[in-house]
Amino acid sequence: MILFRGTQTSKVDAKGRLKLPARVRQRFEEAYKDRSVFVTSIDGTAVKIFPLKEWEVVEVRLSEKSTDNSEIDGEVKDKILFQANKYGSEETLDNQGRMLVPAILRETAGMSGEVRMVWQSNHLFVLNATRFEQEAESKSLSAEDFRHAANLGI
Fold first, then answer.
1. Domain tally for the chain?
2. 55-72 per-position pLDDT tens digit
3. What is the largest CA-CA distance in the chain?
4. Rg (CA), the chain
5. ∠ Cα 109 62 68 (to 5°)
6. In sequence order, which ranges of 43-139 are alpha helices (DSSP H)?
7. Residue 106 lies inside a defined structural domain of this protein
8. If residue 115 lies in a helix (H) or strand (E), which one and from where to where?
9. How far apart are CA 121 and CA 117, in angstroms?
10. Is the full-model pTM beyond 0.90?
11. Which domain holds residue 104?
């Protein structure tokens, strides 16, 4: 499911609350009928906001054994879950579409002031404005990428 396309701009206020833009909040509430979210990160540099129902699906996948019974797969899944819980917090959107970003994550990801968000598959991906521009620059397309995009009809 695609909640929205493009990039949305918002702010993290002095109390550490991120406000979802009205369009994003409306689509979120229509799609999920629930205001519960899991605000997290797996590296501390970017915020990932999962509708709680989506995060529960991720937790199930992380608890399943790999198809080849690889021991390393289980270790990696444990690491991912540990990091997600280290930075994470279950939150509820208030009536104005705000949620608290955990203090540790506000600090490590520089979540204050203006932020940018995009929808990625099953979650909101949020970066502070400076990191977003750095990420955009690092993901700029090469001439070969443009040819490939043309072949895809883009």
1. 1
2. 999 999 888 876 666 666
3. 48
4. 17
5. 130
6. 52-63, 71-87, 103-109, 129-138
7. yes
8. strand 113-120
9. 13
10. no
11. 8-128
